[in-house]
């Protein structure tokens, strides 16, 4: 009886995962197109490296650390959901949300510094790509924070459908991985 | 496990996915039923086709009788002409062809054909429709904002599109970009839904190689769309930044590269051709065996060809750019891949012809349109071989030869493939039969007017008639060709008028058509085993199980000449 009773939940989880992977595949192509455009444009002209030196590597390194840590707390939230541990889900989702907000805060601090120094999206091709790529990524982080906040507010329900946290987690890790590409391409290269 | 069925209602494959709603709004407007959503997509597509057709009428009138008063539109100068041509292309490709072939037929057919009760994500499905509906409203709103609608061509080439001052259109083009973004979001939701549904919700016995071909082709189209649209989304963000944030991605003066836009556009734009064409070919593939009373020829070859076309579609895009000034060394590889992609399509076409061979053909209206698709698509495919090889493309690219080519390929798919599907599944969708006599009148008028409109464009193009001009009479060399332009315009108006019998037929059938039996065409696929129209949960008490492939016609073991997919044993003769 028990196996029959849990089958519908398992079917929904399976469907959800298939759906989210197809969605992520299309997202990879969005960032892939942007990153490929950046690399091709950068190879086509001089002077990009000098512009990139205006960026703060320590701040970006800190942000990388923050985002990687948030992926850890997201996994812990998934694990807590699997255990149906309501307190754990709430705690780790809150950590993930706070870390995401910290990432965006540091990003906003970087933006405001650049804008105050007169470096705008139109200043040079490098900055066009910098603002567009990090801006689009920032919007994705924001979307992830919104999703996690919804999970946090409805944690009691989420515990009964742990696959939802896992789907949110897949998206969150994807956003994290995109940053792992953006960090070296924009700050270190 | 502490979960019980009561806590997770309605997610099992044997459970009804949702209860049948009784209120008007839930039933007809905010419906989560894939059959209603499919019909909503078809209706949206028909409404937008009226807009796109009206634009075509305006621009054709301008080309035939330059700078005269157009009945119903007024005077069209070069600026308005640019708006008409831009919005005609955008409307027809993104708001007519895709909602019809993917949104409409995909939504209606996929769950029925695989034996499911609905899509995997019914509410996401509803959201996808209302998303594209919003996108359509945004596109229509762009006509009335200050400065008018977009005038940068349907391909939105930079730098023309990258600065508002170049076209004089500011908000119109921004809204045009926004409408695209919304449309893409809608079809991303739809594509994820199609793929998840077909991967996880097939009926018992419905293996992948028992799927009807249209399902394969919808799925391939969905994958191709999902994986190709990303770079254009990125490009659209970049273009919008160029327009409103002062960046210079595509503006040479600021260090940008206009060709980058073309690469991003066509990286999506060519796969998009197959996103539209593959479902159209799939509709024809479904119709042909039913009206030949013969098994489909080369099922697996068509499936593999579909994959091959989908994969190759990602590496042919620069054949749109032979005259763009890109590195000429790229011309050879892209010519080769383009010639290669004609192979899978040739296989599909030969398989369709071989299906006809020796069949007992019934010339009902769906069959006429399917044959029309086959004939017209072959014409378009043949000119594709000229266009695909760089040496022939270079003199032809800027001419009406190209216009003829893509109307013979794309419009043949949408028109003939789409109408084949519509006449075929209309009884299933609405529970009424269409009038055959009116259908045949519609077919012959459409076929004649279609060829009268687009066939002369080949010669016009070869004679030097260039694209992207609003007034051919400005060029003395084109003056002798003006009679052909007038003929094409009159034929185009005829093509639009040829749709009147169709509209009349639809309205007449919906009001007083003969009620449709469950299986009026004696077809084998699953959707014909349920009532016309199907009940809310598609199958009533018991969902079907599948015992064989989709094209078992004239089997010597069966008493009837068709053997449905869900029938365990043949009725002995």
Quick description:
The complex is a heterodimer of chains A (189) and B (573). In chain A, 87% of the residues lie in helices and 0% in strands.
Structure description:
- The complex is a heterodimer of chains A (189) and B (573).
- Chain A has helices at 2-44, 48-52, 57-82, 86-116, 125-153, 155-158, 162-188.
- Chain A is mainly alpha-helical and 189 residues long.
- Chain A has a single domain (2-188), classed as Up-down Bundle (Four Helix Bundle (Hemerythrin (Met), subunit A)), CATH 1.20.120.
- Chain A is elongated, with a radius of gyration of 19 Å.
- Chain B is mainly α.
- A two-stranded antiparallel ribbon of chain B has the order 1-2.
- In chain B, helix 2 packs antiparallel against helix 3 (78-114), helix 2 packs parallel to helix 4 and helix 2 (34-64) runs antiparallel to helix 15.
- Chain B starts with 23 loop residues before the first helix and ends in a 61-residue tail after the last helix.
- Classes of the chains: A mainly alpha (189), B mainly alpha (573).
- The interface between A and B is large, with 44 and 49 residues.
